[in-house]
């Protein structure tokens, strides 16, 4: 039987279409438990490849014959070997091209909707890590918000729709992934914006993003209106785009809220986080569509694979927005927090420009889920 | 750090470092140590997990620039052998003796790589295989406490020293595998 390569893009389609699918993950048990390809109708079996060096007979009864089977490992090599063993044993299987590394880097652009003057807003869904970034396009100009380090994806996409990147933003200093913002700005001669309170230690030039800053994209007015919303980090900023969309960064997610401990002590910022979520956000229109910088679970994805929900709906349904008691809220966001993202201190230092790890090292630092939220 | 066999797996991507290690390990004598040189960063976690699942001993990894040197000791049936040396002392008792600063000698007879990654501070390292030749490093008048991983190699060493006229020799059981006191590494 033939062994077929399958790309991350093909796997992403299966996730978004909720197709039934079987994943044989041959990484270490710890790696699998920590992080895997999530799919609503996916089934899994995990056994490290090195347990199968003498043959795959021991797992033949675990592999279904009525479903597509994908063998997955960290970087591809082991999954090819195991897929070949399975093929010799008579099964028809695929392997994931580039392994979990490629999966972690795959971005799926989705058109979220139109802007009033005919522009568009796109969400780039990084399924493998749960990161969301954005491109606002108007009259041949584009702005990028919370970009990942896969800078070519945004640049190529902008080229494909004949838009020139003029502004690049980060809503805050990220701790879970390496921002591509500075690199994109350098490559395209765009302006790079950062909230100054998060940027006290950065080693490069940037424009200060303050409360009330307005940036216009395109010749007609598509406003990106900055709203200071500290809590996840002291500088965290939210953008209102075109009076329609609320880009909430890591302050508010669909099913959870931002954790306040990744850049310092949680206790210090609890009050800020509460103020941002329970006062500043309450003053906004409930009709705004919230577009966060992350999702944590697949249930947060809409039918089309996008992650977006009206602010009014979140006020009604998001547990983190419905805790009356301040003390209960304080406990939620300071106690029993999930583990921190992999290498989050090094990632912050990279985003400040203090260290410059090579690409291989950057990949390694970003392995695993984002873990920026508390539920 | 000494090894009986050195495997060069530099430049090879996963799964090759493990595939090659497994092959060489099959040929290796039980109890012997292999050094696997690899540049694939993922090889560390994989070698460790593979060793655990196959019963070999993962001793540790040294990083020298881009090269990772993994040390493994092939499993042997030492756990099943019957111990013969009559004078034994428990880990806890030895710990007490060490704390009271007695003038005692603790002799570690494991392989040098095992010793290198984890041993009791200020002990003497003479692998069992070198004991005959290096016996003159030991003084017959001091108390000697012999330790290994599980108490079996140290039993053989204690017998050997007794044969040669050492009178105050103790075997430490169960040995380093269950040692909870202080340790250090090279």
TrEMBL record, chain A:
SMART domains: Lactamase_B, RHOD. PROSITE patterns: RHODANESE_3. GO terms for molecular function: hydrolase activity; sulfur dioxygenase activity. Keywords: Hydrolase. The keyword Iron does not apply. Coiled coil: none annotated. Residues 17-112 form the Rhodanese domain. Gene3D superfamilies: Rhodanese-like domain, Ribonuclease Z/Hydroxyacylglutathione hydrolase-like. GO terms for biological process: glutathione metabolic process; hydrogen sulfide metabolic process. The keyword Hydrolase applies. InterPro entries: Metallo-B-lactamas, Mito_Persulfide_Diox, POD-like_MBL-fold, Rhodanese-like_dom, Rhodanese-like_dom_sf, RibonucZ/Hydroxyglut_hydro. This is MBL fold metallo-hydrolase. It comes from Robertmurraya kyonggiensis.
TrEMBL record, chain B:
It comes from Robertmurraya kyonggiensis. PROSITE patterns: RHODANESE_3, UPF0033. This is Rhodanese domain-containing protein. InterPro entries: GlpE_sulfurtransferase, Rhodanese-like_dom, Rhodanese-like_dom_sf, TusA-like, TusA-like_sf. CDD domains: RHOD, SirA_YedF_YeeD. Residues 100-184 form the Rhodanese domain. PANTHER family: FAD-DEPENDENT OXIDOREDUCTASE (PTHR43031), SULFURTRANSFERASE YTWF-RELATED (PTHR43031:SF17).
